[in-house]
Each structure stands twice: as C-alpha cells, then as structure tokens.
Amino acid sequence: MKNIHLGVFEELEKQFLNFPRNTFYDHCLRIIVEAQLNKLKYSDEGFEPNKLSRQDIYAKARGVNKNTVSSQVAKNKIKTDRLNVELEKFIESQPDCKQAFKDIGYLPEVISSVSEGGAKNKTYVWMSIRAIENEEEQIAKSAVFESEDYEDLSSITYERKATSEIKPSLFTKLFFKKGELKILSFRGILLMILLMLSFLVDICVAIFALLVILLLSELQNFKLWQAMLFVAFIPVAYLNWRYFFMPLYMLPYHRVVKAPMFFANINVDNTDIEMYRNKDKLNIARITEFTATCPICSGVIELAKGKPDQKQPLVGRCREAPHAHVYSFDRMTMRGCFLGMKDYSVNNALGL
C-alpha cells in the first residue's frame, strides 16, 4: 500500500504545482500533502499518517506564528468536510488531474481524528486515499457537498494583523515606533509638518510650471528643454498630492486607509494604516493589515478602493475575483456583507 499512497500524493503535489491557485484551502491542502509526502519518503515502514493540528495548518497557510492562532479560529476555518469538498472541486476542474487519479484507481482524501473536547485534546488532520467507485463515488461526493455545514456566504469576518508582524518601510521606521505613531508626539507633529510642506511644495511647483508655460514666449533666454523640465514637475506634484498627501489627510476621517507611498514596504503586497484612540482618547496611527477568507472561493480578501463600482471608500476585494467577490468593511465589528454585482448569486457561483 505504500507505493499506492506515495503515487497518489506525488500526483496531487504535481497537480498543485502545475495548476497553482492562491486560495486559503489550496494552501491548506498543499501543507497536508507535503507533510504526508515527507513522512512517506523518509520512512521504511508502511503508510503511517503524519498528523497535523488545526493550528499548525492554519498558521502555515496564513504565514503567521502558531502561538497567535486560537483553537477556536483554527476550528472554524479548518473543517475536514470543507477541505474534502475543495479537494474534489480542484480534481474535477482539471481534466488531466481527474484522469491521472482514474489511472491510479485511487483518490486522496482528508481525514481528521475525533476530539473528545478540552484544550489538551486537539483534533489532528492528515491525508489518506480511497478507491474510486465510479458512479457511486460521484453520488457520494454530491451528498457530502450538500450536507456540509457551510459558513455564511453573504458575510465575512476580517482579521487584523498584529503590528509586530508587519514589515515596515525605512520611511515608516523614521516616524513610527514599533509600528505605531502618537499624532501629538514629537514625531507625529514632525510628520504633520512634513505633510503640510509637501502640500505647499506641490502648489508652488504647479503654479511655477503653469507660469513658465504662459510666459514662455516672453522668456528669451529660456530654452525648450528647460521648459519641458518644469512642465514635468506637474505630474510629479500630482502624484505626491494624490498618493502621499491625500491618504494621510483622509486618515482622521476614514480611520482606515491604504498605506500611501513610502509607508508600504516594497516587498509587501498589502499594508493598511489605522487610526484609533487609546485609553487617554489620543489619536494613534498604526501600521496593520486587514484580511479575510473569501467564503466563495477561499481566496484572500484585502481592503481596496471602492470606486468605481462601490460607493464606500474602502471595500474588501478577493484577490482571485476582485470585481465579483466584493464585501463591505466595518472596522468596529470586523464584519463585511456581500456587495457583489447586481443579480449575482453566490449559490450559482458554487453550483448549489
């Protein structure tokens, strides 16, 4: 049986590499099958499951510290039935993958232990195989799909990443201490002064460039390349105003904004800035990241601009379907409601 297990798991790993999808459950499945392959490749004995706790799988899939993952969060997100459904959907969506397992005669499946409850009695998850049963297998798959207790597809719950887990940029380190900035502190006032100076410079550059264009015929010693150089300052001033001044200016009003240029680390795809009040009711800005798991496709939902299709300044958009899988964002309740396209049905999207 060892060769059959090894063959099924190696085939699944190959299919994940050939058809990568950036979704939460695909990451979980890859973590489980890779752990099982490592157990088989370096073991001389027969098949022995490599059991992983839910916290281990969730932490690796999210790329966070295991100690920061609560057992309740891991329990709600890592469900065996949902993992099996996503696994079957992946195999069904790839003709080559489906045929490969038919040739082997076995399919991979996710199994979990039965927990007796309590903090010390953890539920463990691993991967095994089962024989393909042709038409009966298809019926069983549909039954599992329909009977599973799905999470609410019309709403999501956001997670706020800890400030210590955010990689700050060099510019951010100048003003933010441990990822946070007290607005009325010396660094906060210095940043506000820099903000106002950048705004004044933008205005002066725009006015000066406009005067150069209007008085170009009167400036006898002014060369064409010099005029073009001054004109080029206009888009530079606009970019500075649009992507540096305006996000920070709107932060006290919107309370959450996307990190403007210079504040986001170049190696990080997503960074947000949130303003909150401490126990002394003083405004504090902190570098963070709001994300959620898309209940439709299990992709990562990030905050993004609401325009042009939404009225809200910030909404949650799925990386895999940013215009179809759209949710609202409430920073106080950390919840969001489905805002997708009109007449769009999440049940139709899932084939329910």
Describe this structure in words.
Keywords: Membrane, Transmembrane, Transmembrane helix. The protein is an alpha+beta fold and 352 residues long. It has three domains: 148 residues, no CATH class; 122 residues, no CATH class; 61 residues, no CATH class. Helix content is 45%, strand content 17%. It contains eleven helices and 14 strands. Helix 3 packs across helix 4. The longest helix has 31 residues. The relative contact order is 0.10.
Task: Give the terminus-to-terminus CA distance.
Answer: 36 Å
Question: What structural class do helix, strand and pairing data support?
Answer: alpha+beta
Q: What is the topology, as strand order, of the major beta sheet?
A: 5-10-11-12-13
Uncertain segments are 142-148
Shape: elongated
Biggest β-sheet: count, sense, barrel?
Answer: 5 strands, antiparallel
Order of helices and strands: HHEHHHHEEHEEHEHHEEEEEEEEH
* % residues in beta strands: 15-25%
Transmembrane segments: 188-216, 222-241
Keywords: Membrane, Transmembrane, Transmembrane helix
TL;DR?
The protein is an alpha+beta fold and 352 residues long. It is built from eleven helices and 14 strands. It has helices at residues 2-18, 24-41, 54-62, 71-77, 80-93, 95-104, 134-147, 170-175, 186-214, 224-254, 346-350, and strands at residues 52-53, 106-112, 124-131, 155-157, 159-160, 180-182, 256-258, 272-277, 283-288, 290-293, 300-305, 314-318, 326-327, 335-337.
Characteristic terms for this protein:
352 residues; alpha+beta; 3 domains; 14 strands; 45% helix; elongated
